[in-house]
Design goal:
Rossmann fold, four-stranded parallel β-sheet, EC 4.2.1.20, TrpB-like_PALP, lyase, 453 residues, pyridoxal phosphate
């Protein structure tokens, strides 16, 4: 129908493979380096914390990687997710632009994160792993891994950034409902956590600190592995199920995007919606504009350096070439906890450096205002992270109103805000402020970047 609001795919159209953009990169990624030797890392080096199947995907250059049938069986609980035409928002904005959004809030955990939590749990179970450790910011990743662990009979330990641990008790309750243990980070349970607390007793935490604690715990037992919810190649690979579905749905709509927008913290939801379309462009297909949106208080792509850095604060992880604010940088405690990461996915960083991705940033008050505007038109309250994509989509639609161009805009509504209502309560009460990062702290963190020959 020409006036359709939602485009739905049957379960039989659920993708059978993920898309690996490494196959189509114009120049390959810089190698991942061992933190001790600074030599390219080997599969054996990574086997301490990751199962073999995940390591193979991390290093693969195959364009298509099969989605295991047990993973597809779980995916079918909510996938394919709907694609919406935001007709009411278009009308409210009085724009000639066509706005589509892929809605990942329909997953059991309320976000895109189960797209990688399910396969990671599956591969760990296959290898005989009993326990998985991880970190979480806003709690969406921790919730998703707790869900996945329950489905595959795995023990899950989640280090949750302390500011979010305190802001979002219902996320903690969600994890605990599925049997996961949720610990505020930094904590007294690890050497890296104790070191941070000794220096900063009131530390609000960061994803870099939580990663350090989770990796440290994973390395202590042979039956334990670590799982990451963003940044690494295999995580971005699993998320491409979003964009692969969206391609089919836009074909149903008889449309194709002029631009794709996603919020970026570590980069997984942006890659999930954008990479399948970018892959087509790289193979000679239609041109497309890609906009990565980050918080002004943690502007990794817009203000960071493209350099080798650690993925965590305690410098336990391998060195990757990425845009970074420095692994010791602790962002201020704004509400979009899932975007409070010092670095950016190497694949997204690489493509940004090459000019294929345009980064931008917005402050939290403008993003909450955009989220409420969207909710009033479309009836969905976005997660604070997703509000960044909503803000950028509105800005681009308003540009179309001024220019008269009828561009097609696609963005990823990566999760709902149903667990984030305290943030909205604070915003509506005028209690939220636009937080800024301390430039001297970033300068200090960047001065400590590892020297790589």
């Amino acid at each position: 129908m020409s006036d359709s609001v939602k485009y739905l795919l049957d379960e039989q159209h659920l993708p059978r493979t993920w898309y690996n953009i490494n196959a189509d990169l114009p120049t390959p990624l810089d190698p991942v380096l061992h933190p001790g030797t600074q030599q390219p890392i080997t599969p054996d080096d990574l086997a301490v914390i990751f199962p073999r199947a995940v390591i193979e995907q991390e290093m693969s250059t195959e364009r298509e990687i099969e989605i295991p049938e047990p993973v597809r069986e779980v995916y079918r609980q909510w996938r394919p997710s709907p694609l919406y035409r935001a007709r009411r928002l278009e009308k409210a904005l009085n724009t000639p632009a066509k706005i589509y959004y892929k809605y990942e809030g329909v997953s059991p955990a309320g976000s895109h994160k189960p797209n990688t939590a399910i396969p990671q749990a599956f591969y760990n179970k296959q290898e005989g792993v009993k326990r998985i450790t991880t970190e979480t910011g806003a709690g969406q990743w921790g919730s998703s891994l707790a869900l996945a662990g329950s489905m595959f009979g795995l023990e899950i330990v989640v280090y949750m950034v302390k500011v979010s641990f305190n802001h979002k008790p219902y996320r903690r309750a969600f994890m605990e409902t599925f049997g996961a243990q949720c610990i505020a980070s930094p904590s007294e349970t690890t050497a890296s956590g104790r070191a941070i607390l000794a220096e900063h007793p009131d530390s609000t935490g960061s994803l870099g600190i939580a990663i350090s604690e989770a990796v440290e715990l994973a390395a202590q037992r042979d039956d334990t592995k670590y799982a990451l919810g963003s940044v690494l190649n295999h995580v971005l690979l699993h998320q491409t199920v979003i964009g692969l579905e969206a391609q089919q749905q836009l074909e149903m709509a008889g449309d194709y995007p002029d631009m794709i927008i996603g919020c970026t913290g570590g980069g997984s939801n942006f890659a999930g919606i954008a990479f399948p379309f970018l892959g087509e462009k790289l193979r000679g297909g239609r041109d497309i504009e890609l906009i990565a949106v980050e918080p002004s208080a943690c502007p990794t792509l817009t203000k960071g350096l493209f350099a080798y850095d650690y993925g965590d604060t305690a410098k336990l992880t391998p060195l990757v070439k990425m845009y970074t604010l420095g692994s010791s940088f602790v962002p201020p405690g704004f509400h979009a906890g899932g975007l409070r990461y010092h670095g950016m996915a190497p694949q997204i960083s690489h493509l940004t450096k090459l000019g294929y991705i345009k980064p931008t940033s917005y402050n939290q008050l403008d993003c909450f205002a955009a989220g409420i505007r969207f909710a009033k038109a479309e009836g969905i309250v976005p997660a604070p992270e997703a509000n960044h994509a909503v803000k950028a989509a509105i800005v681009e639609a308003e540009k179309c109103r001024e220019s008269g161009e009828a561009k097609t805009i696609l963005f990823n509504l990566c999760g709902h805000g149903n667990f984030d209502m305290q943030a909205y309560t604070d915003y509506l009460a005028g209690k939220l402020k636009d937080l800024t990062y301390a430039e001297d702290e970033v300068a200090m963190a960047l001065s400590g970047l590892p020297s790589v020959a």
